[in-house]
Amino acid sequence: MTQYLLSTHRSADAAPGTPPTPEQMQAMMTRIIDLEAEMDATGTFVFGGALHGVDAATVVATRDGDTVMTDGPFVEAKEHIAGFYIINAADLDEALAWGAKTAAATGGPIEVRPFAATGKAADHMPGPSDG
Amino acid sequence: MPPPERQPITCPDRRTAEPLRAVEDAFREVYGQALATLIRVFGDIERAEDAVQDAFLIAMDRWERDGMPANPAGWIITTARRRAIDVHRREARGRELLYEMGAAATTATPPPEDDEEGPVRDDQLRLIFTCCHPALRTEHQVALTLRLLGGLEVDEIARAFLVSESAMAKRLVRAKYKIKAAKIPYRVPPAPDLPERLRSVLSVLYLIYNAGADDHERGPLRHDAIRLARALAELMPDEPEAEGLLALLLLNEARMPARLATDGIVLLRDQDRTSWNRTLIDEGHTIVRRCIRRDRPGPYQLQAAIQAVHCDAARFVDTDWRQIVTLYDQLMTFAPTPVVALNRAIAVGEVDGPGTALDELDAIAPDLDRYHLLHATRGTMLRRLGRIDEATDAYRRAFTLAPTTTDRQFLEGQISELLAAGASEPR
After folding, report:
1. Which residues span the domain enclosing A50?
2. Does the global pTM surpass 0.90?
3. B interface toward A at CB cutoff 8 Å?
């Protein structure tokens, strides 16, 4: 099993075009609830969430022992991550199938990216018992 | 003092001598087969590549002394397995892997001669689908296919795609990294995904062929594409499109010597048809007939059928253009693209005259305004209608858009012919 990040992005500016109607929003929520129920039933769902916009973001860095804060996102990009799932999948084909389902539910493209490692870093370090 | 006469620098053509080509093909085939199986065994492409290289070094020594074994791929696989197991025996962490690889292979029995045959074929098919996975970008699919299945060296692939060897090596490393990191599976896709995934494989092979088409130096790519298409058709006997691609390549290849008879390109209507390769045409025709009997048409089979009609004509004037238009109509139902419409218009020009063809070309012109062949075709039709000035303009436009020197040379010739014709006629 590998874990994959499925992420959705949204434009930093207000979304162009007409905003969705309440009925459209309701239909999308229903699709997402169904999708997540399917993810749960198959042991696919690990974690997920929707993020606030980048206006709510702060970048924190340390410089010579001082903490420096900057209002806004780290990367000045046109599009920012808006929400994500972390899923379990046997291989990329399986992860891509979940990505396609998520794209159909949300109506936007989904980036599928494998985790190189998950959990705590200490779990990946050789312990004293391994010697 | 006159400058010393310079010898033109040319790459030695690795396929000039027939026997050499056969030996090289055999080597590449064994390489591809052994690698495919070892990737399954080791679950890692780079490790498998190293093991095959090692085994080939041993093989060169041994085969020179004892002669070639009956199943060279099986020999390489067994030797590579043993070597890898030896290496892991020396490593403490190798115990688990040793178990996975099947410790039985280490016993002192001679290499199996034929029992690897079945799995080897399945492994090759798996590897084709991994290399051509749609999650990889096209140029990476092409590079992986030529390296891992075609058995070409990195510098050979680099030369064929006009990039430096280090750039091509990097490309391969990145592609292999993605396969491993993202876990692109090593298997033949399940039935619901198969048609789409097979399309991806076929288009990679067609792209490899076309990269070598109309080009004297990159010609070996055509040979590699045909070799791989032949292997695919044998591996997937129930997929008529795989056979369709093979037939299409064979029928194109049959005419390539006539097309490349001069420095530039010789058009179909001017080709010396006696120099067409009859053996390739016969094989292509046999496959096309089989496809027609099977009656499960698809875009590659239809393109092959169109080429089969061309190959049937002893002279250009004997071409059955009505049949070709009918086949293009069918092709349009599978692939309704402007490029197919352009080719259909050329055939229409032969049946209904250049005026009708020009109307059809004008209908698709907005979609293909940046495509040199649209303008070259318009030029041809305009010339046939006697509209010489417009024809010259169309060829000039084609010239500015043409991607290769060969294309530009050809168009330049057309333009000067027209200028000469225009000058000799009163206006």
Report:
1. 2-12+24-118
2. no
3. 133, 135, 181-185, 189, 193
